[in-house]
């Protein structure tokens, strides 16, 4: 008589389940795009060099949101800020980098709001 019990694998419940990352991470496919980040200016926000970010053009850019912006022909990922005088700023999340003022003379546009970061662990 055998006293060995057989237990199902813990993964057995998940074998039939498929995960669709587009359904989880992309709320508006027509207005969403992915970008790879280069640089360390947003490390304090958990966005590191070589990470991919998901950007949604349909979300209203508001103070405090992380955005992808074009400033005088240069693309950047920064936190959007506005001071008490109405001056717009692009703010890094790394103390090595100064805040960037957005002047009325600047060629400035916001391409979208960052919704997720796909961080590489190794």
UniProtKB/TrEMBL annotation:
Protein EC: 2.7.7.7
Annotated family: Belongs to the peptidase S24 family.
Organism: Rothia terrae
Molecular functions (GO terms): DNA binding; DNA-directed DNA polymerase activity; hydrolase activity
Annotated keywords: Autocatalytic cleavage, DNA damage, DNA repair, Hydrolase, Nucleotidyltransferase, Plasmid, SOS response, Transferase
SUPFAM superfamilies: LexA/Signal peptidase
Positions of the Peptidase S24/S26A/S26B/S26C domain: 7-114
Top enzyme class: transferase
InterPro entries: LexA-like, LexA/Signal_pep-like_sf, LexA_repressor, Peptidase_S24_LexA, Peptidase_S24_S26A/B/C
Top-level lineage group: Bacteria
GO term, biological process aspect, one: SOS response
Protein name according to UniProt: Translesion error-prone DNA polymerase V autoproteolytic subunit
Gene from which this protein is expressed: umuD
């Amino acid at each position: 008589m055998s006293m060995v019990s057989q237990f199902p694998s813990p993964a057995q419940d998940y074998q039939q389940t498929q995960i669709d990352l587009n359904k989880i991470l992309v709320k508006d496919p027509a207005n969403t795009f992915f970008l790879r980040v280069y640089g360390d200016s947003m490390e304090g926000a958990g966005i590191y060099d070589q990470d991919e970010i998901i950007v949604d053009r349909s979300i209203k850019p508001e103070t405090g949101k992380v955005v992808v912006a074009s400033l005088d022909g240069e693309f950047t990922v920064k936190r959007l800020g506005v001071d008490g005088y109405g001056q717009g700023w692009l703010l890094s999340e790394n103390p090595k980098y100064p805040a960037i003022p957005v002047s009325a003379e600047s060629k400035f546009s916001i391409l979208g709001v960052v919704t997720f970061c796909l961080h590489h662990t190794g």
